[in-house]
Amino acid sequence: MQLEILVNQIQNVDGSLKLEANRSVNRMLTIRNWLIGYYIVEYEQKGEDKAKYGDKLLDILSVSLNIKGLSVTNLKLNRLFYTAYASIGQTIINELSKQGVGSLQSLPDELQNTSMVIRQTVSDELQNTSMGIRQTLSDELQNTDNQSLNNNAAPFDEYNLILADGIINKLSFSHITLLLTVNDSLKRAFYAAEAIKGTWSVRELKRQINTLLYERTNLSKKPEQLLRNLNEKSERIQPVSLIRDIYAFEFLGIPVKDAVEENDLEIALLDNLQQFFMELGHGFCLEARQKRILIGDEYFYIDLVFYHRILKCHILIELKVDEFNHTNAGQLNTYINYYKKNVQQPDENPPIGILLVTNKNETLVEYATADMDKQLFVRNYMLQLPQKDELESFIKKELKNF
What we know:
About 60% of the residues lie in helices and about 10% in strands. The protein is of the alpha+beta class. The chain has 2 domains: about 5-245, no CATH class; about 255-400, 3-Layer(aba) Sandwich (Trna Endonuclease, Chain: A, domain 1). Strands 1-2-3-4-5 form a 5-stranded mixed beta sheet, sandwiched between helices. Strand 4 (about 350-360) and strand 5 (about 365-370) form a beta hairpin. The longest helix is centred in the first third of the chain and has 44 residues, at about 5-45. The radius of gyration is 25 Å and the shape is globular.
């Protein structure tokens, strides 16, 4: 055996088993979240003391559980997951049986006694034809009238059964959360099928939903060609993206910041920037790094959040290892408005944003303020915060070390 062959063998086995390990994490996370949704719905329907808690059930449940990642928002998401995919319970039980999960015995009789046969013949046939699920759904798109398109009920449960294995084993829970934003059952099945067949990344799935791929396919004279051309250019799931899925990090108890910091340069700059502000004094108190906020149904992360005890306001800092663009400024302004509406207290001043945008050639520092019409406060904050040229000098000095 030549050394080159040995190297290839080791690389192949390492990559394959890492991918399977990552998929196992996501598989168990998906199963857990479906079961949580199942238990919640069962309690809401049959719980002896359900009337006692009413609409506050999930708030009380989140506090009582005290499990990282099971916030009220995520409990609602789990309930929605079960409601949208109630028919995949058989596949859930089958997966638990294959994994030898000990807690299987504690599952309700309704699930325990479910048949293990999950239309496997149909699923295999679909996998082995040239168009598979894609053609099935494309044909349905061409033949479905508007009335049935607006029907979100059970008629399309059959598609969930066909897609069940792929949903559990091929998609991350971030994929599933995106699918849950699609209200129409057939449309949701279409995007699930395309994501599974095309091994789409979460970003690719979001892009296709936002650009109305479903509707474009329905209008296209050659939908097969449209989908084939699209998948030649689509962004695929990478093994590292599965394990770095934000829901997987919560499930494993790994700090969220480890999931969102993109590269060594950014991490180093943020480390030193954090220290720089702390050493300034002037009342800076570190509140969070990679502060997660929920806007609509999407999570965002603010690089650094300080509270300034003298100015009595939050200071939000965004670092972009890139050139300035208006998207960066708009993103920071969105964060400021979020803090004004959801975090700022009546006795506090509006939040301040600092945008640091850098490349190897130049550094831009932009201060953003929200409705700061009080000139006295504006003058005061400029005294308490570092000057622009001071920040520029700091960033340029840091970049020279790389």
